[in-house]
């Protein structure tokens, strides 16, 4: 059986940096060549980054991507890398007569096979995801051809991400074409539970196609999305042969014994999704390669559930900071758990030297809030300052006649103004500390504690905030380090400290109950009656639904933050702000 040494390049492209991404492909192809790989695969839309959103609609951007893929092939040959096959994702232009979806004249999400200084084959994604965070009917037209490349005697089909998730289509064509290997290139964002779902899916598809499937995914953050890598190869019988570490850039190299290509089938096949696809073939006369020592392979250990989420938050935060060219961040440190965890994530992402924390005590701040903030800053080594706000709040109050909530929120707004002023002055990115439970219920002050540029906990429910804080401390203890978060930050009842003795539970149900209802209403779109039928108190359910529905306007003005659940606020959940829909069973609320 022919041997093929395959390298999966799990790398971190930057959206829009076509020149930089091209250099990344050259660098990683050199690594792959130094390990004697015959074929190296890069992620979906490697040259442009992913997702490019409306950049896909700019003809100049499409043209730059098309030029880059040709330049890349030539450059690889000039660098002496012409013998290695390279599969790389890029943005291409479709012929004008491409049928819907997603529309005539739209570009394609494509894969190119490069070898010998040329682009020898191109494949366009057939199944376009158009749900959740994906809008691909808006951006791409659909491919209708499967291209099979015979390389070193093996018939290799290229597919792209969603192609694996839908029945029928290119994998059915690959089965009909009798391929020896499917290489699927991906831009598959992280969410909890998804890595194993991908592996199971690939195992099922490998059995259907009767060939091994090689799956390469990108790593890194892009605005709200975090890509976790987790690239792998499964054999035709579903056995995992290699699995790369989660969230780390790197190369997974494996020697595969593959069925030789014998079929010559071309022409059009019914691919069982209501369409027909054309099978095209490219026969490369690649010379056989000299002997080489076997590649060490292995299955990287999986991260524990909390470690995986935490790694996603650190990766998303680090890449947002780095890719937007910030060198430092600023966090308002209250002594509470949210700002404590955000600071810890920031320190893990970019190092304590680049993390500035500021405590801003007001008249109602407790002594322990200042002490706990200081202790956290000391343990983690952040650059910490204290700016009391009482005089500033008093100055406002001398000129404005404010009472009740308006007076309380003023403190949060003075803090927001200080944070943004320090950001302007020193160039720090302000990290917003709110969590998903607060965002769901509107429990934050607009232009106050919701100010800032990036919100690491935006998709993290409060109960998970505590779990992650406990996990991070335990992890430090296991390695003999000082736990980064003072225990009192974890143990104290949450309070905004905007008036004497205030507790979150004055305004919100206890967080375990709140988060359980939010999970059903926000993440599963459950109806009011279904949530009540699941055993929740009808009055509490009505209250929570009202809070969530009335806070849409706040969410629209909130900074981005890394997605870790199946349904984040942002691209995953889009609701009208002006909205009089009332869930059945609730009392209609006034206004
Ligand atoms: N549909 C709509 N479209 C656009 N804007 C709309 C709007 N409805 C109200 N508004 C505006 O929003 C304003 C009300 O929002 P906002 O000013 O934020 O004030 P509001 O939501 O009334 O109060 C903030 C709440 O968050 C709590 N909080 C504050 C700070 C920190 C924490 C914490 O623990 O982390 C909690 C605080 O105790 C209070 O319960 C209105 O005055 C109006 O200007
Ligand atoms: N005294 C303070 N000094 C500095 N920042 C503060 C202070 N109080 C509030 N903040 C900022 O405003 C955010 C809102 O926090 P607040 O204390 O009102 O509620 P919280 O949800 O309990 O957050 P945390 O758990 O971080 O305290 C804090 O996370 C912090 O960034
Ligand atoms: N880029 C894509 O096509 C991604 C869609 C796919 N269902 C995933 O999340 O993995």
Automatic annotation (TrEMBL):
A Gene Ontology molecular-function term?
NAD+ synthase activity
Which key words tag this protein in UniProt?
ATP-binding, Ligase, NAD, Nucleotide-binding
The active site is formed by: 44 (proton acceptor), 125 (for glutaminase activity), 161 (nucleophile)
Q: By its UniProt entry, which PROSITE patterns does this protein fall under?
A: CN_HYDROLASE
Q: Which Enzyme Commission number(s) are listed?
A: 6.3.5.1
Question: Which HAMAP family does this chain map to?
Answer: NadE_glutamine_dep
Where does this protein hold L-glutamine? 131, 188, 194
Q: Give yes or no: UniProt keyword NAD.
A: yes
Binding, deamido-NAD(+): 409, 438, 554
The name of this protein is: Glutamine-dependent NAD(+) synthetase
* Reactions listed under catalytic activity: deamido-NAD(+) + L-glutamine + ATP + H2O = L-glutamate + AMP + diphosphate + NAD(+) + H(+)
Q: Which GO terms describe its biological process?
A: NAD+ biosynthetic process
Give the originating organism: Acidothermus cellulolyticus (strain ATCC 43068 / DSM 8971 / 11B)
Q: Which GO terms describe its cellular component?
A: cytoplasm
According to the entry, every stretch annotated as the CN hydrolase domain falls at 4-258
**Functional description taken from the UniProt entry:** Catalyzes the ATP-dependent amidation of deamido-NAD to form NAD. Uses L-glutamine as a nitrogen source.
The pathway to which it is assigned is: Cofactor biosynthesis; NAD(+) biosynthesis; NAD(+) from deamido-NAD(+) (L-Gln route): step 1/1
Annotated residues that bind ATP are located at 332-339, 433
Instruction: Note the SUPFAM superfamilies from the entry.
Output: Adenine nucleotide alpha hydrolases-like (SSF52402), Carbon-nitrogen hydrolase (SSF56317)
Give the protein family.
Belongs to the NAD synthetase family.
Q: What parts of the sequence cross the membrane?
A: none
Q: Give one Pfam family.
A: CN_hydrolase
Task: Please tell me which top-level EC class this enzyme sits in.
Answer: ligase
């Amino acid at each position: 059986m022919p041997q093929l040494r395959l390298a999966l390049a799990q790398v971190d492209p930057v959206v829009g940096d076509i020149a930089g991404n091209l250099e990344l492909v050259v660098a990683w192809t050199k690594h792959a060549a130094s390990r004697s790989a015959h074929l190296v695969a890069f992620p979906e839309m490697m040259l442009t980054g992913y997702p490019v959103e409306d950049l896909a609609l700019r003809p100049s951007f499409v043209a730059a991507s098309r030029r880059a893929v040709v330049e890349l092939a030539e450059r690889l040959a000039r660098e002496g890398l012409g013998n290695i096959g390279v599969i790389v994702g890029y943005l291409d232009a479709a012929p004008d007569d491409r049928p819907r979806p997603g529309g005539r004249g739209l570009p394609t999400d494509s894969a190119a096979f490069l070898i010998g200084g040329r682009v020898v084959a191109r494949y366009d994604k057939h199944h376009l995801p158009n749900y959740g965070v994906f809008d691909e009917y808006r951006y791409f037209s659909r491919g209708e051809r499967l291209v099979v490349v015979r390389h070193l005697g093996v018939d290799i089909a290229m597919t792209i991400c969603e192609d694996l998730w839908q029945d029928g289509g290119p994998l059915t064509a690959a089965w009909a074409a009798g391929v020896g290997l499917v290489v699927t290139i991906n831009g598959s964002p992280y969410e909890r539970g998804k890595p194993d779902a991908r592996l199971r899916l690939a195992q099922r598809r490998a059995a259907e196609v009767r060939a091994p499937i090689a799956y390469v995914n990108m790593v890194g953050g892009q605005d709200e999305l975090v890509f976790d890598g987790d690239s792998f190869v499964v054999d035709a019988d579903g056995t995992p042969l290699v699995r790369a570490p989660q969230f780390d850039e790197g190369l997974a190299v494996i020697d595969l014994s593959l069925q030789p290509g014998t079929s010559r089938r071309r022409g059009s096949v019914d691919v069982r999704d209501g369409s027909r696809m054309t099978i095209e073939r490219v026969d490369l006369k690649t010379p056989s390669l000299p002997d080489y020592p076997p590649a060490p392979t292995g299955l990287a250990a999986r991260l524990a559930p909390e470690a995986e989420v935490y790694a996603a938050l650190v990766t998303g935060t680090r890449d947002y900071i780095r890719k937007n060219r910030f060198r430092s961040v600023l966090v308002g440190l209250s002594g509470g758990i949210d700002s404590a965890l955000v600071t810890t994530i920031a320190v893990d992402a970019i190092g304590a030297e680049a993390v500035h924390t500021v405590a801003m005590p007001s008249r109602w701040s407790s002594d322990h809030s200042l002490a706990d903030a200081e202790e956290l800053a000391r343990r983690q080594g952040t650059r910490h300052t204290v700016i009391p706000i009482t005089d500033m709040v008093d100055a406002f109050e001398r000129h404005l006649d404010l009472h009740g909530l308006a007076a309380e929120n003023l403190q949060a707004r003075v803090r927001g103004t200080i944070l943004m002023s320090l950001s302007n002055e020193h160039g720090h990115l302000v990290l917003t500390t709110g969590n998903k439970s607060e965002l769901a219920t509107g429990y934050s002050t607009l232009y106050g504690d919701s100010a800032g540029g990036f919100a690491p906990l935006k998709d993290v429910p409060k109960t998970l905030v505590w779990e992650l804080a406990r996990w991070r401390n335990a992890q430090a203890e296991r390695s003999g380090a000082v736990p980064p978060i003072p225990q009192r930050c974890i143990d104290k009842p949450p309070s905004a400290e905007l008036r004497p003795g205030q507790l979150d539970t004055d305004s919100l149900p206890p967080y375990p109950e709140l988060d359980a209802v939010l999970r059903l209403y926000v993440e599963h779109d459950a109806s009011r009656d279904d949530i009540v039928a699941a055993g929740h108190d009808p009055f509490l359910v009505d209250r929570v639904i009202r809070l969530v529905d009335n806070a849409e306007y706040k969410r629209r003005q909130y900074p981005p933050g890394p997605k870790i659940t199946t349904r984040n606020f942002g691209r995953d959940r889009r609701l009208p702000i002006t909205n009089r829909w009332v869930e059945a069973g609730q009392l209609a609320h006034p206004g």
